[in-house]
Amino acid sequence: MQKRHLYLFLLILGTAFWGISFTFVKVGVGNGSPFVFLFYKFVIATACLAAVFFNQLKYITKNTLKISVLIGVPLLAGTILQTIGLKYTTVSNSAFITGLDVLLIPILKFLVYKKKVESKIWVACFLALLGLYIIVVKDGLSLNVGDLWIIACAFGFAFYVLQVGKFSNEKNPMPAVILLMLFCAVGCLIFAQFDSNAIWFPKTDGFWSGVLFAAIPATAYMYAVQNAGQRHLGEEKVALTYLFEPVFATIAGIFILNEKFTKEIFFGGLLIVSAMCIAEINFKKVLKK
User: Which Pfam families match (predicted)?
Assistant: First the structure.
């Protein structure tokens, strides 16, 4: 099996962990502090990666630290915004709206790096916005506050993927990933100091199981595979694997939290997933075949 095919499979498996983690995070955070939950998540992820890739720690340099900060800022922002949003909206809404980062990536590449945006991207954006409208707009033009947080988080994750792509040629990516997790942990620790709901040993049901699932398979595993795999796949291919995340998240939300799967979620989600597919398919190659 070629490396790119192996990493593609590993990334899809990671998106399953990501999707299921939406449910664990929503239950774990409850009415408590999202910063405490995320602090534990990133600390455990850091410890796991440092233990597994202990021999890589000797390659940490000042440049590694710089890269981890540049990648860590958008990741920290996206993760915090998403976790806050999950407190106020459903798992399905959160997953599908977060999926908009797939469309934001090429658009931000155009705005930030002045790279041309294909016409299919604008078609995809129209479909995605229509799907978003169907899912989240209720009672006229009002938006659920949680949905607004999630829309903001999609921008954070899009910038994160772009930053990873910018530094994907690094010979040893794991030291930067370990420092990236540590940077996010420190960031959450700082934010938690200003959160009146911060309880360091909460008794919320599902808190610790949620932290462990979010930390190990959904964070340590996924971000390690993503940062290593992006050297072989590129930003767009990595983004394509994100198509599976809202599907897994919705299934988990239905079976674990008994969330309702409404016709609005179905049709809106279908439009968003279709938009993602349109954005990622190389129509020239398809037509040639």
Answer: EamA
List of residues 6+ apart from 207 with CB closer than 8 A: 28, 30, 32, 37
**Please, how many CA atoms are within 13 Å of residue 250, restricted to the half-sphere of its CB?**
24
Q: Which residue has the tokens 């990622």?
A: 280
What residue spans define the domains of the chain? Answer: 3-288
pLDDT tens by residue, 48-94? 999 988 888 888 888 889 989 999 999 999 999 999 998 888 887 78
> Read out DSSP for the chain?
--HHHHHHHHHHHHHHHHHHHHHHHHHHHTTS-HHHHHHHHHHHHHHHHHHHTGGGGGG--HHHHHHHHHHHHHHHHHHHHHHHHHTTS-HHHHHHHHTTHHHHHHHHHHHHH-PPPPHHHHHHHHHHHHHHHHHHEETTTEE-HHHHHHHHHHHHHHHHHHHHHHTTT-S-HHHHHHHHHHHHHHHHHHHHTT-TT--SS---TTHHHHHHHHHIIIIIIHHHHHHHHHHHH-HHHHHHHTTHHHHHHHHHHHHHH-----HHHHHHHHHHHHHHHHHH--HHHHHH-
Please, are residues 222 and 17 in contact by the beta-carbon 8 Å criterion? yes
Output the CA–CA distances (angstroms, integers) from residue 77 to 164, 244, 281, in the order listed.
15, 22, 29
pTM given for the model: 0.81
Segment 160-196, tens digit of pLDDT = 888 877 776 666 778 888 999 999 999 999 999 999 8
